[in-house]
Amino acid sequence: MDLLLIGPPGVGKGTQAARLRQALNIPHLSTGDLLRRHATEGTRLGAAAAAHMRRGDLVPDELVTEMALGRILGPPCAAGVVLDGFPRTPAQADALDTALTAHGRRLTAVLHLTAPDRTLLRRLTGRRTCGGCGDSYHLDTRRPRTPGRCDGCGHRLVQRADDTEETARTRLAAHTRQTRPLLQRYRLAGVLHEVDGCRDVGDITRRLLAALASHTVGSSAR
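-> structure tokens emitted (222 positions)
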């Protein structure tokens, strides 16, 4: 079972990917984690990707694809995987389809988590991080006992540069532009399922699993 989880920044993809991994007993592959691992280990692909990131450029499709497929087609993911962050472009989607088909696999379903921009902006801009221990807080869901101070070490809480409203709006707009062709592709293929990302975490997981179950049953019937 190969799944793709799509959703904008702040919608809770990481949380749901971890819950799907546990419920389905298949690995979760995050492109961001994969890039960081290659960079930390100093691999050929990691060094090439890091050079692009230092210049502020997007990592080319061919590098991301080689990294991702090396993992997807390897032993840990042979029985399936929850993909998060790959594919991001039509070229990456083409490469994934070709590789899966060559190994007798296919993308089982695409699960799209949705939420209004105003909700996502609140989630993104409400995050605060401790400048001492690195612990995370949120102005809505996890407020510190003393405003602006970490409960654990007492250091001042700061807003990360990528959590400002201007940056958050830019990230959301970029996500919309980037995923529009993918959503259309998977909608036409009949594998796209949309789930409201504003619900309770457990409810979202149940709805994702229900969508997956209904899709699997429908596919078997056909």
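Helices lie at 13-24, 31-41, 44-54, 61-72, 90-102, 117-125, 165-189, 201-221.
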